[in-house]
Design goal:
Blueprint: H1 9-18, H2 24-31, H3 42-62, H4 72-89, H5 103-119, H6 121-128, E1 135-137, E2 157-160, E3 166-174, H7 183-196, E4 200-206
Parallel strand pairs: 3-4
Antiparallel strand pairs: 1-2, 2-3
Helix pairs in contact: 3-4, 3-5
Length: 210
């Protein structure tokens, strides 16, 4: 007659250990194949880079001439090709798995925001009446470090309005028709004003609606 087995939490643990897992998390990863990291599809990345270029080219063709990028191919080399080269060389692509998305999708989403902030610098100069030399890029963007690809509350730009006054600017990009700003960005703006007495503006470029 077979020995009776009482089903308890201890039994579950013993079972998982018997098939080679020390905890529930590793067991779930195994059965869901979450421990298998797919190789980054570089052909897909190349297509995404081309799409990034198509985006800025289309917008550049229709905006007022005084805000356009004069050499769009040079822009591509400097703000698409070069960052991608550094990201690839530093092995960052396979680690981009925010919220379970594919690395290629995380890369594309991040790069869209990055190139928009670069693309509209001339427009910002006109809005604030300053020379481009008065605009400092202060965001936590570092192509060599995976940690800076996390969501950071730090604003993208700091603009010197005059000898005494500076403001920070948070650039928001709209690609789907939904325009919002994250709570941690607002809290950061409050912190900066409290500690530095510096205002933060959020500027939204709604590329979906124009």
């Amino acid at each position: 007659m077979p020995r009776e087995i009482t089903i308890t939490a201890e039994y579950f643990s013993t079972y998982r250990q018997a098939i080679g897992f020390a905890n529930k998390i590793d067991t779930k990863k195994f059965f869901g194949a979450k421990d298998i990291i797919p190789a980054v599809d570089l052909n897909y990345i190349n297509l995404l880079n081309e799409r990034l270029f198509e985006v800025v080219k289309k917008i550049n063709d229709i905006i007022p001439e005084k805000t356009r990028v004069e050499d769009i191919k040079k822009f591509k080399k400097e703000f698409i090709d070069h960052p991608f080269k550094i990201i690839k060389l530093n092995g960052i692509l396979p680690k981009l798995n925010n919220q379970g998305r594919r690395p290629e999708e995380v890369y594309f989403s991040w790069m869209r925001g990055f190139i928009v902030s670069q693309f509209f610098l001339k427009a910002l100069c006109l809005v604030f009446g300053v020379n481009i030399s008065k605009i400092d890029l202060i965001g936590d963007d570092d192509f060599k470090n995976i940690r800076t690809f996390k969501r950071t509350p730090k604003a993208d730009l700091e603009i010197k309005i005059n000898k005494k006054e500076k403001i920070r600017v948070e650039i928001q990009s709209g690609f789907t028709g939904t325009n919002d700003i994250k709570q941690h960005k607002v809290l950061e703006a409050k912190r900066v004003f409290k500690e530095l007495r510096m205002h933060t503006l959020a500027i939204h470029f709604d590329l979906f609606n124009g």
